[in-house]
Amino acid sequence: xxxxxxxxxxxxxxxxxxxxxxxxxxxxxxxxxxxxxxxxxxxxxxxxxxxxxxxxxxxxxxxxxxxxxxxxxxxxxxxxxxxxxxxxxxxxxxxxxxxxxxxxxxxxxxxxxxxxxxxxxxxxxxxxxxxxxxxxxxxxxxxxxxxxxxxxxxxxxxxxxxxxxxxxxxxxxxxxxxxxxxxxxxxxxxxxxxxxxxxxxxxxxxxxxxxxxxxxxxxxxxxxxxxxxxxxxxxxxxxxxxxxxxxxxxxxxxxxxxxxxxxxxxxxxxxxxxxxxxxxxxxxxxxxxxxxxxxxxxxxxxxxxxxxxxxxxxxxxxxxxxxxxxxxxxxxxxxxxxxxxxxxxxxxxxxxxxxxxxxxxxxxxxxxxxxxxxxxxxxxxxxxxxxxxxxxxxxxxxxxxxxxxx
Length: 406
What we know:
single chain, alpha/beta, Alkaline Phosphatase, subunit A, 2 domains, 8-stranded mixed beta sheet, globular
């Protein structure tokens, strides 16, 4: 009888040597007795989520971890973000991922508007009330995040971002990425939409109140990641497994939903540093009774990495570890511990650095690794593999794989 598969994705857990930590990574500094025990009891290695040196997004990273080739199926981040917050994106629609951000004297001073948590409902309603030449829809996501959908005929998705992806510079003018008139029309519409949204958001009472309190206003929507609906062969059809996902952030939920997986909502799974790790672990353990394959994404390491906060990343890793005993009792199943990408504190962004990987289960060939971190896992029996191959390895170990050939 086949065993179940639990894929624990600690978003952004990988790192580089940090000067503040005396040349060690947050994983090397953190006290992680439970993860270290998993490393002792399992087989270890390094994983390049897409390929060596390729910097994954959270969307392309999860596509690879689900066994898809991102270079074949990826059409942009927007449609996944939309699916993650329950928006049905139809063929021909163009979807963008957006940030509520802060614009001061023409310069982006905070791409996350102080990680705004309150008032985005009112701001979203104001945006959706704008007069515009085509039908559109804006839906807020978690904290500063949101999704913009353009719904009209004759639109193309080949356009540049409004988001400059850094602070201290002006926002960008979207430009068509081809000579196609459809792309040119979309770029013009996106630029017009951005100007209108600045007018509406800058005068909104929510932002006026924020500025009076010394907080950063959410007075611009920075759009990026335009895309159309991709075709992805459903994971249950492809693997023969009953599949589910738990994630606090809409983007990962959207990738999994488009892959045909059931998405399990967990109260307290915020996608932020305050996420309820224990609740996520408990729900994942319950889900293993019903599903053959469960993917779990927990976000906090990525946030502290983006913010360049080494000590906060260490503390979050220790929180991940301290609750891990909740998963006891799953010894008959196979559990993989890894990430979707590295978010090194010195870089403050995703990087192409490989991730530590540990697999535990009843028939793994244990190696000599005794610590779960980037440097220790180099010595593991899995050596170095691609994220796209991880699910195949787990399916083979758990009895869900099929022979190729006679």
